[in-house]
Every structure is written in C-alpha cells, then in structure tokens.
Amino acid sequence: MPEAKIAPSILAGDFANLESECKRMMRCGSDWLHIDIMDGHFVPNLTIGAPVVTCIRGALPKGESFFDCHMMVSEPERWVDDFAKAGGDLYCFHYEATEDHESLIDKIHAAGMRAGCAIKPKTPASAVFDLVPKLDMVLVMTVEPGFGGQKFMKDCMPKVEELRSKFPDLDIEVDGGLSNDTIDFAADAGANVIVAGTGVFKAKDPQEAIAALRAAVNKRQLK
Ligand code: DX5
Ligand code: ZN
C-alpha cells in the first residue's frame, strides 16, 4: 500500500484568509491541500475557480505544497488547462460527469498534472477498474459531494476494500466525514489518502489531528 497522505480540505478553512489557512495546514504537517471546486451544476453548491487557485499558488510555491483539486463540475474537460496554469498538481474529475474518461485522463496528463477519478457513493468501484492503469488516484466519496461537515458513510468501505485488493499500489483517497472517530474504518479498508475538512480545521489541535490520521493509516500498513 502506498504511503499515507493527509489532505486537509480548505473548504473548512476561513476563506477570508486563505493564504494563512493553507500555510497553517502545511505547518501542521499536511502532505497535500485538498481544494474543492464546485460549479453549482454537478453539485448544488458553488465554491471557487482557477483564479483563486492561481492566487493561492502565488502564495505557496510549487514543489512546497501539492494541490489536490477535486473537480465537482460538469464538463470537467473544460477546466483542465486553466487548472494546470493555475498550479494544480492533481486534477480529480468525477466519473459521473463525463463520457469519455480516457481522453480526459490523457488531456490531464498532457497538461502536466496527475489524474484522479472520483466516484459518488452510488457509483460502484467496478466503474473505474478499466481506467486504473491510466489513473494516478481513485477517490471514493464517503458523503454525497457538495458540502463539508456531513456524516461519514461507512457503507462505502467495501468499495475501498475491493479497489485495494485489486490494486495494492494505487493511491486511494477517501473524502467526507473523516475524523479521529471514523479514520479506522477507512484505514482498515485500505485508503491511504485522507481528506479531512471539519475533522482537521475544527479540531482543538489540527497538528495533532493530522498526526492521528496519519498514525491510523500507518498502523493498518503494518498489519
Ligand atoms: C464534499 C467535499 C469534501 C469536504 C470534506 O463535497 O468534497 O472535500 O470538504 O469536508 P468534511 O471533512 O468536513 O466532510
Ligand atoms: Zn473534496
């Protein structure tokens, strides 16, 4: 199983102070920063677009921080070049948002980013099996995408188990409702990339929260 990566979701941060929030998370030991892009169409919420990512990238140089862009958008093909230019490192589109997955993955790679594919709770893991050889990551959503602060859906764990047993070296990310209370379910199922918004930003000690998430994933790896 690949190494643990902890990716705080800046959606739970203070948007009036994005630069300092991102830097605070990096100081607290995050591996990646998870950036939630919502278009008000694929999901019933609106967040930010490439111009804001460009600004954050201006404040946190490439190489010093890894931007995991979770694209909850229709027509994900449309924004690949903008996000590459904005400084995205990984472009994770939703399986449900496009028909031609392979061309999109090629486009993301050609733009110089890693490619991820996210599946909503009702999409089976088998949907992405054939795509995995081309993908750098699969994101198994553990809430319906659209909002932070929702309850972790434990019934998505069999999908993580299925993917982990078929693809031992794949980066498998989980997103939604992850915290100290739920991490063991995800880690035991085989997830190694952990997104946490509320669980980190609203923790009394975010550094400790990040360390605890990492420890849970590492403990599973020793089993
Ligand atoms: C939900 C987003 C998540 C969200 C996670 O649609 O994709 O990244 O911010 O937030 P928490 O950890 O609070 O569920
Ligand atoms: Zn997300």
TrEMBL record:
<dbReference type="InterPro" id="IPR013785">
    <property type="entry name" value="Aldolase_TIM"/>
</dbReference>
<comment type="pathway">
    <text>Carbohydrate degradation; pentose phosphate pathway; D-xylulose 5-phosphate from D-ribulose 5-phosphate (non-oxidative stage): step 1/1.</text>
</comment>
<feature type="binding site">
    <location>
        <position position="70"/>
    </location>
    <ligand>
        <name>substrate</name>
    </ligand>
</feature>
<keyword id="KW-0862">Zinc</keyword>
<dbReference type="GO" id="GO:0046872">
    <property type="term" value="F:metal ion binding"/>
</dbReference>
<feature type="active site" description="Proton donor">
    <location>
        <position position="175"/>
    </location>
</feature>
<feature type="binding site">
    <location>
        <position position="36"/>
    </location>
    <ligand>
        <name>a divalent metal cation</name>
    </ligand>
</feature>
<dbReference type="InterPro" id="IPR011060">
    <property type="entry name" value="RibuloseP-bd_barrel"/>
</dbReference>
<dbReference type="InterPro" id="IPR000056">
    <property type="entry name" value="Ribul_P_3_epim-like"/>
</dbReference>
<comment type="similarity">
    <text>Belongs to the ribulose-phosphate 3-epimerase family.</text>
</comment>
<feature type="binding site">
    <location>
        <position position="177"/>
    </location>
    <ligand>
        <name>substrate</name>
    </ligand>
</feature>
<keyword id="KW-0413">Isomerase</keyword>
<feature type="binding site">
    <location>
        <position position="34"/>
    </location>
    <ligand>
        <name>a divalent metal cation</name>
    </ligand>
</feature>
<protein>
    <recommendedName>
        <fullName>Ribulose-phosphate 3-epimerase</fullName>
        <ecNumber>5.1.3.1</ecNumber>
    </recommendedName>
</protein>
<feature type="binding site">
    <location>
        <position position="70"/>
    </location>
    <ligand>
        <name>a divalent metal cation</name>
    </ligand>
</feature>
<dbReference type="GO" id="GO:0006098">
    <property type="term" value="P:pentose-phosphate shunt"/>
</dbReference>
<feature type="active site" description="Proton acceptor">
    <location>
        <position position="36"/>
    </location>
</feature>
<feature type="binding site">
    <location>
        <begin position="146"/>
        <end position="149"/>
    </location>
    <ligand>
        <name>substrate</name>
    </ligand>
</feature>
<feature type="binding site">
    <location>
        <position position="9"/>
    </location>
    <ligand>
        <name>substrate</name>
    </ligand>
</feature>
<keyword id="KW-0479">Metal-binding</keyword>
<feature type="binding site">
    <location>
        <position position="175"/>
    </location>
    <ligand>
        <name>a divalent metal cation</name>
    </ligand>
</feature>
<dbReference type="Pfam" id="PF00834">
    <property type="entry name" value="Ribul_P_3_epim"/>
</dbReference>
<dbReference type="GO" id="GO:0004750">
    <property type="term" value="F:D-ribulose-phosphate 3-epimerase activity"/>
</dbReference>
<keyword id="KW-0170">Cobalt</keyword>
<dbReference type="InterPro" id="IPR026019">
    <property type="entry name" value="Ribul_P_3_epim"/>
</dbReference>
<keyword id="KW-0464">Manganese</keyword>
<dbReference type="GO" id="GO:0005975">
    <property type="term" value="P:carbohydrate metabolic process"/>
</dbReference>
<feature type="binding site">
    <location>
        <begin position="197"/>
        <end position="198"/>
    </location>
    <ligand>
        <name>substrate</name>
    </ligand>
</feature>
<keyword id="KW-0119">Carbohydrate metabolism</keyword>
